[in-house]
Amino acid sequence: MPTDFAKNLRALRLSRRVTQAELAKALGYGYTAIANYESGRNEPSIGDLARIADFFQVSLDALVGRHWEETAEDFRWRLLSPWERRTVLDFMDQLAKKETGQFR
């Protein structure tokens, strides 16, 4: 059964629209390494975990599922592309303007 890391890695990769081969190449791995991580067959070293977290710009805790309740919101935010983040922030600005009567 896949670990939290395996599930989180797959979710991150899919949300960023990165193939297993593309991620492996970016990290300097063989083409099957990511598939083995996602299936739970292999687990990365701490150094490799840090490189994967850096690639996706997430914390190690979020990547491995530690303290999920504390990092879930941050983890979801980081899954968004920069364009999606900007869209959410623009929407929030519009809601705030509406609330204060500045929205037209």
From TrEMBL:
<keyword id="KW-0238">DNA-binding</keyword>
<dbReference type="InterPro" id="IPR010982">
    <property type="entry name" value="Lambda_DNA-bd_dom_sf"/>
</dbReference>
<dbReference type="Pfam" id="PF01381">
    <property type="entry name" value="HTH_3"/>
</dbReference>
<dbReference type="InterPro" id="IPR001387">
    <property type="entry name" value="Cro/C1-type_HTH"/>
</dbReference>
<feature type="domain" description="HTH cro/C1-type">
    <location>
        <begin position="9"/>
        <end position="63"/>
    </location>
</feature>
<protein>
    <submittedName>
        <fullName>Helix-turn-helix transcriptional regulator</fullName>
    </submittedName>
</protein>
